[in-house]
Amino acid sequence: MVNWSPDATKIATFRLDMRSAPPAYALQVSPASRFLPIIYEYAYAYPSAPVLPTATPLIIDVKTGKRTDVPAPQQILYGGGMSVSWFKSGREIYFRQEERGFSRIQLLAADAETGKLRVIIDEKPEDYVEASKFQTRFVNNETEIVMTSERDGWNHIYLHDAATGAVKNRITGGEWAVRSMDRLDDKNRVVYFSAGGREPGEDPSLRHLYSVGFDGSGIRLLTPENADHQVSFSPDNKYFVDVYSRVDLPPTSVLRRAADGSVLMELEKTDISKLVASGWKQPERFKAKGRDGKTDVYGVLWRPTNFDPARKYALIEQIYAGPHSFFAPATFAAYRNACQVFAEIGFLCVMVDGMGTDGRSHAFHAVSHKNLGDGGLPDHIAAIRQLAAKYSFMDLTHGIGIYGHSAGGYNSTNALLTHPDFYRVAVSSAGNHDHRLDKAGWVEQWMGYPAGKWYEEQSNITLAPKLQGKLLLAVGDVDDNVTPVSTLKLAAALVQAGKDFDLIIMPNAAHGFGNDPYFVRRRWDFFVRHLMGVDPPEGYQIARDAPAR
To answer: Is residue 152 a part of any domain in this protein?
Structure first.
């Protein structure tokens, strides 16, 4: 990647050194192109590797060919390289640099003639920097920086001097979290941002749009409806389209004036009358207390279309507890993939966001720090038990089922291994079962660097001898996101421990095979057989989509 200077006399780029990159391998057993298998080797950034591919910024004078190396090598934690940008003056470049383990993130500048470095912003908290919360935007002819940071325990916006890096003033503050900076109006010195948790009594997952001056004055709520608001601005910053909904509120889209949020026109309102007439059951967004009996956690419960409150229903949980976000839906949808399907099969299905997921305070989020094995599971269990106490139709007598993909594949197996009295059946696909084998750019954000004893302690491979329930593992043979070795090493540990389990290797499948018809059918059958206690129909197939013409 190259970036031209404003006067087109220089380019900024980087040199990528792959010589010390640790290799990963995949064996494609049944390729379409030939009978014999194919072995693939590719560079992979393991958290356990002391040296990774390294990118070093450099500047090249197009006319003279002079190359200026910038003394700021950056280890690349997952694919690609680094982004290098120019200041409008053309005298400097700037870029961000992240330390291994995300213990520090800096915004750096380098002189285009000499390569001399200067530090603009230096974020180094006591534990770790949430990379997605370090967002910087230059304003006021690049003399100031508007940036987000969790430095006070909540994600908020600050104004910095671009020359010195000093904080000029904070722009937002309070026990609520900024979710995104949606538009900066440099001319009028206004930030338009989305945030959750500021409105009293509301679900903190719901986003509202606000405006505030660069000096922190005049904060204004622009989207007052109790719903999640997704916005899109006009190029002149005068108007925005607002699409808002909740799990129990169909979407409405309106055109609003940016100055005060007033509605100029309703564009569309979703009509679900035919959907309701078909017998569709609306999912239930719920609030419960987490493991400490005090902290609110949120989730969604799905019921079958033919739901009968007099019956008893087994429960399946869909899990993905990756700390980079939160996952239980907050917005409306008529259909949400597997959970609704499991409800139609005859189960209840639930998703919960426990401690360790994003969108709340840093303390709520930091439960995951060096602790991915927690997965919020104590909060999930507490919330589900509260639901069962409220709803007599929820049957937890024989334990519950759980499934997940990727990080959810790790979580679902880990639930079976660490909470066998609660979780009894699991289907885990493409799981990163040992974080020493996953990509550093994701794992080190939460587990730190170097890979300490907690990596091994929280590995599903280490915990394999504890297996008590029914487990189905699945992995694609050419997955280059989460290496298949992770699942196969877990299988080896289970074999060594003498444990019964099922394993599917999906031929020619990369990471995203979660909706493959064969795998979906096997996942249905596994839960029907082991959680419902019923033999599934024999010989049925899920039709694959017809190929595009």
So the answer is: yes
Residues 80-89: what's their mean pLDDT?
92
CA gap 216, 408 in Å, rounded: 40
Question: What's CA 244's distance to the chain center, in Å?
Answer: 22
Look at residue 519 and tell me if it is in a domain: yes
Question: ∠ CA(194), CA(255), CA(177), 5° rounding?
Answer: 5
- Between CA 17 and CA 23, with CA 19 as vertex, the angle to 5 degrees is 115
528: which 2 tokens? 């029907």
Shared domain for 343 and 486, answered yes or no, is yes
Task: Find out whether 270 and 250 touch, Cβ atoms under 8 Å.
Answer: yes
Taking the C-alpha atoms of residue 462 and residue 447, their distance in angstroms, rounded to an integer, is: 16
Domain count along the chain: 2
Tokens of 435: 């974080």
Q: CB of 519 within 8 A of CB of 511? A: no
Q: What's the rounded Cα separation, in Å, for the pair 130 and 105? A: 9
Q: What is the pLDDT of residues 92-110, one digit of tens each?
A: 999 999 999 999 999 999 9
The CATH number covering residue 237 comes to: 2.120.10.30
Reported as type and span, the H/E element at residue 493 is: helix 484-496
Domain that holds residue 184: 137-246+249-280
**Token digits of residue 523:** 């996942």
pLDDT digits (tens, 9 = 90+) for 303-347: 999 999 999 999 999 999 999 999 999 999 988 878 999 999 999
Cβ neighbours of residue 280 under 8 Å, at least 6 residues apart?
272, 305, 334
pLDDT surpasses 50 at 515: yes
